[in-house]
Amino acid sequence: MNEQAGLAGRRAALVGRARVVRAARAWFEGEGFLEVETPARVRAPGQEIHLDAIPSGAGGAGEARWLVTSPEYHMKRLLGAGFERIVQIGKAWRAGEVGPHHQPEFLIAEWYRAGAPLAAIADDCEALVRVAARAAGVDLVGDPGRVPAPPGARSGGQSPPPLDLSRPFERTTVRDALERHAQLELDGRESVAELAAKARAAGVDVSGRTSWDDVFFQVWLDRVEPHLGRGRPAFVFDWPAPLGALARRKTDDPGFVERFELYANGLELANAFGELTDAGEQRARFVAESATRARLDKAVYELDEKLLAALPHMVPTSGVALGLDRLVMLVLGATDIRDVVAFADHEV
Amino acid sequence: MYDTSDIRKGLKIMIDGTPYTVVEFQFVKPGKGAAFTRTKMKNLLSGGVIERNLRSGDKLEPADVETKTMQYLYQEADSYVFMDTTTYDQVNIVSATIGESKDFMPENINVEVLFFNGRAVGVTLPNFIEQAIVSTEPGFKGDTSTGATKPAKISTGAQVNVPLFINVGDVVRIDTRTGEYLERLSRA
Q: Is the whole model's pTM more than 0.95, yes or no?
């Protein structure tokens, strides 16, 4: 197929995409959010072990700059200065991520509510998915309020099932999902060896998995994830502390952190944290992550001292990053992210 | 050794001592974890499909398998004799390995033979074959009911349901995967 025909064939998806993004912006404005833009080229792109930033030359002082993997750090500096409801809709970049649900350059919606509990962010996500569905022309009022399955697979993959948005989204926890789908009881304080033993007892092959998160995600992918959000979106709350990243511990259950992921029809749509504001604990996590990055021969970024300095000024805050390309996929019934962008990475 | 970055459709790898071919794969990154590749693989011996979630960097043992185009020559006791169409080497393959494929494997047809560690382990027929009908009851003149069929035999002895207008000597096209009649190519 020549380029003109290929691009012309994407018109409907691009129209849908534009409507979803426009409706999302309007919804945030209606909720009293201030839309902000923070730098795309940064000194500290995000310490997470499994995210790799794309280099972007040098900054004014000759220091290394990177494209952001998410706008989180700079947005938290705004929160530390007293901004209460902020949203950013912009591009983020993650090296090496290519697949039906991944592109190295993608559109992220990231927002924070100062002083709000994590459940308020889940309510936002739920509202936003419905806003997007309406914008894409899905009738939520009529019976039964479903995103229809697309006619045949768009990209050679399987068609997703119809999605029921008329009912409240499911809300579950990591612990309940593991117990239900993997018959594994988690308390969040297991050592790697203890977790691996539980995984083997549940019949999951974890040979070759040596870190806590690798053992966990082998079980998660093999047993749990395929069941999440099928036909109806599902929030999975309360992630185990070793997968805490920038989330604060639950006060009533320190084996787990204030974090949720939103799943819908096989898509991981959003990741949210009750934000960690303890600069001491955040520094310790950054240092540990840097050490792991160094051990794995990954690029080691500078510690974001300006972020650490801002954290003590933040009130308890909840925030989330949501993949807008995936939200568009969901409401258009697309199975491949390359079907909802004008130019995929390999078409540049 | 392969690793997960080598995964593509058709890659032949060993899992627990059995050769598999990759039929589908997808890059996934669960919940801020490491990259995995969801991989659907077909057992080349049994045809069964399994799914494995391989972590990025996992090593995979290549399977020593190859397919060769071979011509089926004739049956010899409980085995079938095939000839490599490029080297003219001949091999005998036992009936059990060929299985139900023999129903639609007329003499002189070219097939794909799968070798594992140098041993023939499977035969794949072309999706369609063209065969003359060797026996069937004559059709009834004037019968206009649509969709009505009758049994007919081809040279391999396999029975195929054909429309009533088909006669002995007609050449028909058959789908070897379903055993179904598709169309008449020429009349007797």
A: no
